[in-house]
Amino acid sequence: MRTPIARAPQDTRGTWKTYLALVAVLAVSAFPLYWMFVVATSTDAAVNSIPPTVTPGDQLFVNLHEVFSMQNVYFTASLINSVIVAGVVTATTLFFCSLAGFAFAKLRFPARNALMFVVILTLTVPTQLGVVALYILMGKLGWNGTLLAVIAPFMVSAFGVFYMRQFVAHAVPDELIESARLDGALTLRVYWSVVVPAIRPALAVLGLLTFVATWNEFQWPLITLNGTEYPTSMVALSDLASGNYVIYRRVLAGALAATVPLIVLLLIGGRQIVRGIMEGAVKS
Amino acid sequence: MSLTAPPRPPAVRRRPPDKPQRHWLYRFDVKGTPYLLIAPFFLLFAVFGVFPLVFNAIVALRNWRLDDPDANGWSGFDNFSRLFTDEDFWNALFNTFGIFLLSTVPQLLLALMIANLLNRRLRATTWWRVGVLLPYVTPVAASTLVFAVFFTRDGGMANWVLSLFGIGTDNPINWRADKWSSWIAIAMMVNWKWIGYNALLYLSAMQSIPKDVYEAAAVDGAGPWRQLWRITVPMIQPVVVFTVVLSTIGGLQLFNEPMLFDENPAAASGGSAHQYQTIAQLIYKVGWKDLNLGYAAAMSWALFLIILVVAGLNALATNRLSGGGRK
Q1: Where in chain A is the domain with CATH 1.10.3720.10?
Q2: Where's the ABC transmembrane type-1 domain (chain A) (predicted)?
Q3: Cα B176 from Cα B178, distance rounded (Å)
């Protein structure tokens, strides 16, 4: 006989079946990464053997060396470029979005609500569809093929403004701002000494999400940077996979090198990334 | 009146900074600074987000070729009318919708199941959630290349697993060769990438359902499965609609997976007979391989309108299906 469950699911303890299912989910999530590692550490013979080899080999450094020394792929430079691009985009997003979020949350000015509505509206605009015109614009500016072309379009995000506004509204008490003003602090001063210290957790969340998203950006960098000496790591990866004769252990060694930084970020900041995604959902 | 005497500060100063220029500064700080703070967002978004979308419409109405810059000029609706007879466009549209269906439906259903699993009292709660995000942080370029190896015809993992069940032992599946097989392969990549992310969105909504809703239903003896479909799903309906719209917008612009699944990504052809070429990929090919930016811009606008319509329809349908009808 089934006993009625008198509890909400979130108060119900997970049974062994729950854990078993979750382990399966985790295995599927991690498998391609594991497989990437296996191929990246193997010889050609091991990669092509049937049945497939399922344990890592010892060729990782051989394969990585081949990737990094390949002509016309610029893999080393591409990793540095990716760090620069994702780093600059993250810094500007945090700065501009927290400034705007602060203004929308705590300052009074005409048309504030209308402007905030515009921000929310822009959340739904698929800007990717403007790539043709963006390419022409970058051509006029002379930025195509440079890192500026992949930094400038991502320097702010509507989600960032929205997220910051919500956080500032809750995390910064009005009295704190008022007392800083009574001491004669101008708005920018209030931002820097009152708001920024209070919203550090939100900055970490938005920073991680932005860094990951920018690092993984593929379509626009491919359009503007392909064929130059300044690819991002995603563009270099597609170069690695193009050509008449593709060597899988080499391609996946490159993929591994471009993935590891993000896995490390997930291990360090996983809690923040999870939080960012879950909070974004409730507020959308 | 004498011009010599500026307004004198009061004899008793309460605060030292009460000089005239400070007044001006404070007034600006109240009236102007707020706009200064929001200006960077609006300026950058206008220049690099909105302007390209609008300018795209102008480019679409012109001859605009990268290989022949002199041949530019207004071309009216030529670029748009060409779409109607372009077999590549209709083929790509068909592929895009096929892959979209194969990826969205299983993706969201599985995300719901996983969210339901995570919505329990668990040990190491955070780590399970971080675990399902592994695909989300993995660069799509990198994971697609893994799947490309996974789905090779000879010696690929997928065919090997199938051969264990006696499928395709004599004649292994050439995953890239046909529409159905390449669509399944690509849809699997998309599903893998986004299930965990959507699961967290659902989980977040599930945890804000008031507990007494469940307690009331438990009296009626609803088991866990009925509980999920009768209580949980209708209660998180806004987020379900949100994810449907989100994956519509993303799915119809699918680019990375079909691009890198190709044996020669640089061609952007989506297979030997375009069997998995998507619209976004075709836009890239028309614009930067055929060098016809005008036509690529027209195609972008067509895709924009399609996304608008489909996202709207999907939102309506989901609203109905997931229990919104009951209000």
Answers
A1: 68-283
A2: 79-269
A3: 6
Q: Do B133 and A156 touch (CB under 8 A)?
A: no
pLDDT tens-place string over residues B148-203:
988 988 778 888 888 888 787 778 888 988 999 999 999 999 999 999 999 999 99
**What mean pLDDT comes out for the span A219-239?**
91
Q: Is B290 helix (H, G, I), strand (E, B) or coil?
A: coil
Q: Do B121 and A14 touch (CB under 8 A)?
A: yes
Residues 11-40 on B with a CB inside 8 Å of A are 15, 17, 25-26, 29, 31, 33-35, 37-38, 40
Q: Does the beta carbon of B240 lie under 8 angstroms from any beta carbon of chain A?
A: no
Q: In this complex, which of A30, A237, A270 lies closest to B141 when CB atoms are compared?
A: A237
- Cα–Cα distance between A205 and A103 in angstroms, integer? 20
* Per-residue pLDDT reduced to its tens digit, B193-241: 999 999 999 999 999 888 888 877 766 666 777 788 888 888 898 899 8
Of B17, B33, B211, nearest to A188 by CB-CB distance is B33
Task: Name residues whose C-beta falls within 8 Å of residue A111's C-beta, 6 or more positions apart in sequence.
Answer: none
Taking the model in full, what pTM does it have? 0.90
Q: What is the pLDDT of residue B1?
A: 41
Which of A75, A95, A132 should one mutate to test binding to chain B, selecting the residue with the greatest count of B CBs within 10 A? Answer: A132
Tell me the chain A residues in contact with residue B154 when contact means C-beta distances shorter than 8 Å. Answer: 50
A237 CB neighbours in chain B (<8 A) are 139, 141-142, 145
> Cα(B96)–Cα(A209) distance, rounded to whole angstroms?
27
Distances from the Cα of B86 to the Cα of A78, A125, B79, B91, B278, angstroms:
37, 27, 10, 9, 14
Domains (range + CATH), chain B: 20-60 (no CATH), 85-326 (1.10.3720.10)
Quick check: B94 contacting A, CB < 8 Å? no
**B154/B140 Cα distance (integer angstroms):** 24
Residue whose entry in the numeric block shows the structure tokens 């036509």 = B295
Question: Using the beta-carbon criterion (under 8 Å), do B134 and A130 form an inter-chain contact?
Answer: no
Whether the CB-CB separation of A104 and A112 falls below 8 Å is answered with yes
What's the pLDDT tens digit per position in A36-80?
Answer: 999 999 888 777 777 777 888 888 999 999 889 888 888 999 999
Fold of domain A68-283 = MetI-like fold (1.10.3720)
